[in-house]
Amino acid sequence: MPRLSVWFIRCSFIYLFLGFTLGGIILANKGYPFAPWVWSLLPAHMEFLLLGWMVQLTMGVAFWILPRFRSGPPRGNIDLVWSAFVILNTGIVMVAVQPFISMTWLTQTGRILETISVLLFVFALWQRVKAIEV
Amino acid sequence: MPLLTRTFIKTALVYFMLALLLGILLSLHVSNSLFPVYIHLLVFGWLTQLIFGVVYWMFPKYSNQLPRGREALSWFTYGTLNIGLILRAIAEPLQASQASNLFGVLLVLSAILQWLSGVAFVANTWQRVKEK
Lengths: 134, 132
Ligand code: HEM
Fold this sequence. Notes:
heterodimer, A: mainly alpha, 4 helices, binds protoporphyrin IX containing FE
């Protein structure tokens, strides 16, 4: 497994842990309401688990396991995928903290960063989706 | 494919079918308090459980003696995930329609079990994510 995949996948595990923790707090609060602000954790819960856990895990495994190139760097443009990794995580954190710093532009900017990240990733890996022989 | 993986995947498929059935009920406006259950049958019971099963099977070896880490810990993940999710699927809609101490306790218990399933998964898989 390449180093960049280790980063993607371990980060996805951290988000899994954080997302489950927040989900558990929200669920417990539905059983025994103890603090109304707990609902502000919902955007972070969703962002951590949908983007941080599932999307990020998929990106790490895809970068690791898709067919490699015969000539040139075997996994394609690594710098591009590294920047997708950094931009994705910046976007996730921005969306997650927005309810606590009430700056609405954080959510929009975070979503734009997440989109840019996925576009970069798709662009970098597009050619690796191929029949092995080619 | 190890037994644990088959169990994870087949259980995940059952949740997938249940979620789709629940989706039909939701489209008939049977009850809106079922929406969170519907979402989590899909993302947790189906997708996350499927991922847990495939990761256990396919990720790099932990060691030669314990290629897949501690099997018991992964069975613990399986048990807590599913008991936790089923408890939620029962108690959450009931709590929404007729709140009671019992359903409250069940939801807290369900939250703890689901959280433990994630912790056990990460604990048993973290070291398997490594550079070759
Ligand atoms: C495994 C991946 C998971 C994903 C992708 C996920 C995603 C989501 C999404 C999209 C929502 C918004 C839907 C809604 O408002 O009902 C949500 C809500 C929620 N999630 Fe999760 N979730 C996951 C796991 C969990 C776990 C493990 C727990 C509990 C331990 C949990 C507890 C909650 C609660 C309590 C809500 C609020 C439900 C409500 O609106 O009343 N989630 N989650």
